[in-house]
Amino acid sequence: MTGSLDNRRLAPQDPVFASESVSAEINSHGELRLNDNSRIVVGENSVVRLDDFVVGSNGFQRGTIEVAKGAFRFITGNSPKGAFTVKTPVSTIGVRGTVFDVYVNALGITQVILFKGEIEACSSSNCVVVNRPCDIAEITSSEAHELPYLRSGDRAAEDSDYTLTSRQNRFRTGWRAPVLACAIRAAFDPNVGVQPTPPHGNEGPGEGREPEPEPEKMGYTCGINC
Length: 226
What we know:
By secondary structure, the chain is mainly beta. It has a single domain (2-187), classed as Sandwich (Jelly Rolls), CATH 2.60.120.1440. Helices cover 7% and strands 35% of the residues. The chain has a 15-stranded mixed beta sheet that branches. Strand 14 (136-139) and strand 15 (144-147) form a beta hairpin. It is globular. The two termini are 27 Å apart.
């Protein structure tokens, strides 16, 4: 991981200052702790900038974190709710005491996964508020909207898209997100795994046959990295 001050390579316990950009290369990541005990994960091939930080009597009065590209996790510390704002090329995210991940693709399209607390994600035209664990908001240059929540879809596809939620044992304990809550939510969601019923007249071969019985549902177990 590198910092922008003289383009230095960061080592454990090295300081990072306001107005610095922090980047992580492929097959690497960075873990930062701010003075208010907020924690940041900079994912591989990602660039994050710490900007406009003002120290108050109890943590930071305000601070802006700019995510230029890649993956980023933020776990708030002791600063007042609403002190932090996260910006991406197409969005502004208001933070209200949370744990969340941010993903920014090459076009600037942003996806935010909430694990705890509440966030307000805004595009140039509208805002969405998400406040349930594992909710996902997507922000484009023209619109903010919600997506199906984490673990409600195909696990392999999610792990490919949301790289910070898989193999969390590579992060120190304090920098991990409570992803297990997403698997629990999906386990109790009757709509997860249900295949849509074909419309009448489009059943195809075998139309009119008696439906086959559903296989017996198996019990649900989950490890630490669900």
